[in-house]
Amino acid sequence: MVVDLVQALVKTSHIMVPTATPSSVAPIPTVVPDLPEYQHVGHSGKTALWVVFVIMIISSITFVGMSWRVPVVSGIFIHLRLHINL
Known about the structure:
Radius of gyration: 30 Å
Number of helices: 3
């Protein structure tokens, strides 16, 4: 005889067991989106992005050069830094 676990808990338990009962939840209201607000990048923002890009490229090239100079066993941390940087 197979006994449903939930029914067995409901019958034998003294604590409140949540059961599936219908609830009266109001319907979710519809959301009317506003018009999008566009933001533009200025000259200093573009310059900052290019500076960060160049710094990341230089550090990636440096890590690749460092990883080629040491054996793989001892260069595991250099490989890890390279993959984090990429």
